[in-house]
Design goal:
The protein is mainly α. The protein has one domain (23-107). The protein has five helices and two strands, in the order ααβαααβ. The protein has helices at 2-20, 25-37, 52-56, 62-89, 92-105, and strands at residues 45-46, 106-107. The chain has a two-stranded antiparallel sheet. It starts with a helix and ends with a strand.
Length: 108
């Protein structure tokens, strides 16, 4: 009888966790796994378009590169946090949009 109770409890727990999953939870988890899996890939990582100043004539300094990288990480983190927040609220379109923005920033 205790095995049956354990199985029933497990089924209830699985159903509860599935019920709390948002519309983008699987996509977010898949993207985060892809990021973790790309850790050893030297060609993977955050990327952004080159600035107009860099295209015209200005050579970047170490400080300007670091500032740009910091801003890029902050923007990426904000997009991921927004996607998770909207996912938790059940807003599929907003979550999808924020996750897409984060995906455009990361080369896998």
């Amino acid at each position: 009888m205790t095995k049956l109770r354990t199985v029933k409890a497990l089924i209830v727990c699985l159903n509860i966790s599935a019920a709390h999953a948002g519309p983008c939870s699987a996509d977010i988890a898949q993207f985060e796994k892809a990021i973790r899996d790309s850790a050893g890939n030297p060609f993977a990582g955050l990327t952004a378009p080159q600035s107009v100043a860099a295209q015209i004539e200005h050579q970047p300094t170490q400080e300007s590169v670091k500032r740009a990288q910091d801003r890029l990480r902050e923007k990426f983190s904000a997009n991921m946090a927004r996607a998770k927040r909207l996912d938790a609220k059940g807003y599929r379109s907003g979550c999808t949009s924020a996750l897409s923005a984060a995906k455009r920033m990361y080369v896998l």
